[in-house]
Specification:
The strands form 6 sheets. The protein has a 6-stranded mixed β-sheet with strand order 10-15-14-13-11-12, sandwiched between helices. It has a 6-stranded mixed β-sheet with strand order 18-23-22-21-19-20, with helices on both faces. A 5-stranded parallel β-sheet has the order 4-3-2-5-6, with helices on both faces. Helix content is 36%, strand content 19%. It contains 19 helices and 23 strands. With 539 residues, it is α/β, with parallel strands linked by helices.
Length: 539
């Protein structure tokens, strides 16, 4: 059904295109203009005939402009059903005019809170009240009223008016109502996200962690959870080509992460690329020294720390070159020319999907861009600290939430449970292997020599199978290496297999009812073993 536009109410913060749009409304279609404060002044200064909203409400703006459109004279004209005689009779009895068009955009709350020095008071004053109410009313009554919430829609609206002799179709009004409700939802989400950031995090644990209280009680969780994410990009497909997918990110994200990373080169990221990049980045940021990580199918197949980034890369790649083919590279330092040169070595014939790093030296970036057209290069900015927030995982009909697996390890609390203590070199290697193991899918076993991985056993249902896979991957390098296990050994067969292969020391959480058997196996073979008291399952 076509509806004519005879009277428009305009109240905008962003005045882009306002005067030209209003001029067309009044000169081409004879629309009566009503406006608030600054909007009315802009139109009047341009010589357009416009009424102040106070002429309609018979009430002035008050409270520094906080109250101006919240009045029955406005909402009756917006919400009255034109096809209901009782509604129209009520308007006539109270001499209330119909309002056919609302043009309203909101206070710039999102832009305001992005300012680095914005105060809470300024942010709150930029929360629009009357605008969202007016937009919602107009959108609810789209059968009779048109609502425009963005200047980019002005030209389209005028074209529709011209095509329909000053009227607009129901379909078009409904489309604009959808845009309006979406805008209000986004606006409210941004405000809620801001207020969430104002609420102090309460930690009842004296030790400052996010786990259980010392008395064993569970931390309290909210009865309801609201999550807000913005669409960053649609993806070609999901984990498999028959699945649809998109990438959403946290609003106002300003910390280094895969979600905030800038892509400098290469093909569009895939769903699997994003998962692997996130895993690689979370592992490489664990290390204070120059580090490189290779990830394949969400598991590290190589990782190393060295005196230079180029050396770290060579060692990481050597961890499992076969599995590294088609993998993801992550660095915790800007990629320099030597590292880029090592990566592009033509003799190695490497195939790499993505590289993610804090930055790239100009010569290194140019070289990598010229190396392969499709390799994706991403820049995060300086890495600092651990990933923030909670972990979320969707299950059918529900959502699992947990605190992140960070900050739980303290070497001062580790216990030597064997007769032999690890040497200083072994201890450092155990610490390195333990950090890597935390990022491997359970059941997880990591073998390390010095500060680089030589074998990984990941995702096996039996822990001893993971031990055997890691030993096979390491080959001769297993001699004198150290072993990390993400959870306790249920039987001594894990220690026996490791010792027979030549492993020198072991780190694991402990806690099995058969810990004594594993300790005895180590003592029989002269292995050192540490208990961390912390488990690092990853499913």
């Amino acid at each position: 059904m076509l509806r004519p536009i005879r009277r428009a109410l305009l109240s905008v913060s962003d005045k882009t295109g306002l005067v030209d749009f209003a001029r067309e409304l009044t000169t081409q279609f004879g629309v009566e203009l009503i406006a608030t404060g600054g909007t009315r002044k802009a139109l009047a200064d341009a010589g357009l005939p416009v009424k102040d909203i106070a002429e309609l409400t018979k009430f002035p703006e008050i409270l520094d402009g906080r109250v101006k459109t919240l009045h029955p004279s406005i909402y009756a004209g917006l919400l009255a059903k034109r096809n209901k005689p009782e509604h129209m009779q009520t308007l006539a009895e109270h001499n209330l005019p119909e309002i056919d068009l609302v043009v309203c955009n909101l206070y710039p709350f999102e832009e305001t809170v992005e300012e680095p020095d914005v105060t809470e008071a300024v942010a709150i004053e930029n929360i629009d009240i009357g605008g969202p109410c007016m937009i919602r009313a107009a959108a609810k009554n789209f059968e009779s009223v048109t609502v425009i919430v963005d200047p980019v829609l002005y030209d389209e609206c005028l074209q529709n008016l011209k095509s329909n002799n000053g009227q607009l179709t129901r379909e078009y009004r409904q489309q604009l109502a959808f845009v309006a409700f979406q805008r209000i939802a986004d606006y409210d989400a941004a405000i809620a996200e801001y207020f969430l950031g104002l609420i102090p995090l309460v930690d009842d644990d004296e030790d400052g962690d996010d786990g259980n209280d010392e008395d064993g009680s569970e931390p309290e969780w909210d009865d309801e959870v609201e999550l807000f994410f913005d669409l960053k990009q649609s993806l070609r497909y999901g984990e498999n080509p028959h699945q649809n997918a998109a990438f959403y990110v946290e609003p106002d994200l300003n910390r280094p992460s895969i979600a905030s990373a800038e892509q400098l080169h290469g093909k569009e990221l895939s769903y699997n690329n994003i998962l692997d990049l996130d895993s690689a980045l979370n592992l490489v940021r664990e290390f204070p020294g120059p580090a490189a990580v290779v990830v394949k199918h969400n598991n590290p197949c190589g990782a190393a720390v060295a005196s230079t980034l180029a050396d770290a890369f060579q060692l990481a790649w050597s961890g499992d070159p076969q599995s590294a083919f088609g993998g993801i590279l992550a660095f915790n330092r800007p990629v320099d020319a030597n590292t880029a040169s090592a990566l592009m070595d033509p003799k190695a014939k490497r195939f790499i999907e993505c590289v993610i790093a804090p930055d790239y030296e100009p010569h290194a970036l140019d070289a990598l861009k010229g190396w392969k057209e499709n390799v994706r290069l991403l820049k995060t900015g300086p890495l600092s600290g651990f990933p923030q927030g909670h972990d979320y995982r969707r299950v059918d009909g529900g959502l699992l939430i947990q605190s992140r697996d960070v900050g739980a390890d303290d070497p001062d609390n580790w216990k030597v449970v064997t007769k032999r203590k690890p040497t200083e070199e072994e201890f450092n290697a155990l610490w390195f292997a333990w950090l890597v193991c935390k990022h491997v899918k359970s059941n997880a076993i990591v073998l390390a020599s010095g500060q680089h991985v030589v074998g990984v056993g990941a995702g096996q249902m039996s822990r001893v199978d993971s031990v055997q896979i890691a030993i096979r991957k390491a080959g001769d390098r297993v001699k004198g290496s150290v072993l990390a296990s993400d959870a306790f050994f249920p039987f001594r067969d894990n220690v026996d297999a490791a010792a027979a292969a030549g492993v020198a020391a072991i780190i694991q959480p402990g806690g099995s009812v058969k810990d004594a058997d594993s300790i005895a196996a180590c003592d029989e073979r002269g292995l050192a073993m540490l208990f961390t008291g912390v488990r690092h399952f990853r499913h």
